[in-house]
Protein 1
Amino acid sequence: MKKLPLTLLCFVSSLLSAQGLNSKKEAIVHSSTRVEQMVHQSVQQETDRIFNKLVNIRREFHENPELASQEKQTQEKIKKYLLDLGLQVQTDHYGHSVIGILKGDKKGKKIAWRSDMDALPNDYPDPETFKSKIKGIQHGCGHDIHMAIGLGIAEVLSKNKKSLKGTVYFVFQPEEETFKGAKGMLNSGLLSKINPDEIYGLHVTANPVGQIMVKPREMFAYQKKIRIQLKNGLSEDELTGLSKKISSSLFRVSNGGKPWEIQSIVDPKIGLTNPDTVFKDYLFTDGKFNIYSKNSESFLEAYLYETNASHLAMIVPEVQKIIENSGYQNKLLSVSFVQENPTVLNDEKLTHSAIEILQNVYGKNSVASDYGQVPFFNDDFAFFQQKIPGVYFFLGGSNFEKGVIAMNHSPNFRVDEESIRTGVKSFSSLIIERLNQN
């Protein structure tokens, strides 16, 4: 055998060593990928295993709805479910809230998942066989679905505890419909006890069943209630004419659309998933101004919906100018916003990370882009996002072929329960991946 020169031997030796290191690195990467795949397979299998149980508990919630601040039985069901999973449970934060705490086998970051609990005061037609047993109260907004998904994620993650690096907090929040629950929990010292690094939540919508939709920043339009205070002396016709002038002067829509026609959010041509959606760049008033008199003064009130945060500060001065230019400067007493709830504002970095994770695990089509902002609705999840970076998702619940339309707060509101399966598996995987990321 011919002897190689020493310099060549050194080169070959270093090359082989490098190849060996690369092989080891590749083996580690492949091994890590296999482990991740196994974890997400376990998530899907566990979701399928408990799916029927989750459907049943959703129907129990649906049959026994409770209004904001009255969620006592709902609280007890959630508490029992979480305790049976072996989670720590806290019920002393605010109202009928429940916090479930799941600690992974390894230390890491802290993530919260929020589900809202309360039902609506209405008696709309309900086509379900498991309709509400309580007259005048219904789960007509999908919070029963949200709770079932939250409990499902808790169960799936508890079965995959060894894969968790950190802690998950399951925040079951009361009083969302009155916009009091999230703020109440924060004001009661929630963050001094759990202090998560990130928070996530969802709302079922009229989109096709199983479709997850999200975008960075605003998911809803900014809703403001404006009040114009005038001295008496204007006739009803003059007040009506002034209110119409204000509405028409402020009015702005894109692509000639009608963003107040909320049913169009699912239209593939003009809805939220189309880059040319009519649900972006708009400002309009919600119907006619409410006109009334009190203490020798006249008032005009209306809700405004604006998509652009930078325009908000200009609305009051603009209304003042419209009134002055209409010849009523001497009658004007004040223009102000009398209701200004914050809007859901998704953290950009976390949103992009969440989209990437869900698409990597469940495919490119698992998440649809949202190009607009929904008017009329909002969510007090926004208060959590003011303190904690968070992401809020829309989850489709409609099955148009079956006549199931998940249009919230409307008669015959129904949700395809397959959305529970999608929600549990998708967001269990998301939380696992976020916990395991540095």
Protein 2
Amino acid sequence: MRLTTWLRLVPGRPFRRAGHRTAFVAAGLPLHLAVVPLWLWLVGTMAALVPALTPPPVLLTLVVTPLLTAGQRRRYRALVGKDLPRPAVPGPGRNWKSAVRRLTGGALWRQVCYHAVAGPLFAVLDLAVLAVWAVALVAASLYVWIWALPPQWRVTDVGYTTQAAYITAGGLALLFLGPRLTGALVRLETRAAEVLLGPSRTEKLARRVADLAESRAGVLDAADAERRRIERDLHDGAQQRLVSLAVNLGLARATLGDLPADARKVIDEAHREAKEAIAELNNLVRGLHPAVLEDRGLDAALSGVAARLPIPVRVAVDLPQRPSPTVEAVAYFVVSEALTNVVKHAQATRADVTVERIGETLLVVVADDGAGGADLAAADGTGLAGLAKRVASVDGTFSCRSPAGGPTVITVELPCAP
């Protein structure tokens, strides 16, 4: 039967907790003392001034350190339920470069410091705590020991019972103090293990940033998928119903010639409202996620945007392969909103849109020959701040150069690494 199974049979939660912690302390002794012979060997060779014998104990320490670390992780996980996070691996592979990265990385040397420096100190503290438990148990049960001894071995001096009572009281006091000392030592060892055996603060922050970036990418992908779903539902549902309504109203207006003037006026008004609703719904669907962007990519989608504008727009898209749907959608909405701003505010006669991929970066440039003076921080309804936030949502960069008198050039860089 395993040790943890025996500990579950101990009645009472405080006693079981003290039993787990005491077992944790006892299990740490061989792991803490494992490096001591190697360091005694190293100190002996250095004291004997034999440099040739110095590398072997150091190399053995480096070899044994990962094994001891794995043992310590199992010890913490099994006896106190603490799962120590592993430090970041310097690099994949088993060649000499990865070995050099591991040797020069801080994680290995923190582990060496734990086993070679903190380990022997904890071994001394472990022995002290176990000694306190041993003395406490023997002293608290002194009367049992006296009763268990044969009559010829029992103490018969006058006052021995009073001394035994004092010893028993001291043992009970140590039994009361033992769990607290054990708990303090477990907390101290756990804290040292988290610092030396786990990732450093920099690695924790880097891992946290990576987790946040991954979760944010998931949120963006989910939002983009939701926009696509809404676009499909509107296109296949409400839009088709409105088209059917407009067709029926048109047929009614064309075939029912004997209607009163008031009824015909109502049908005409309803037919006009239905066509306007269809146009507004088309704009709404296009603003959510245009179907042409998903089907044919940025070139076709941006060409469609340019064709609907009242000014000439030159569109040049050079993409050997399509970026991710999220990045593609951000690029489309940035260009679409920027061109809308050109028409509304720039007083321009022409605009140029360039989209190209340079390495792992999608470069988007929107330029016009308007009056200029666009301010990213101004709250004048130009929407540049919103564009900057949309670009920042995918770790992109947004810049706007718009001197008074023009021209205005908006440059966006979007990461599109696989």
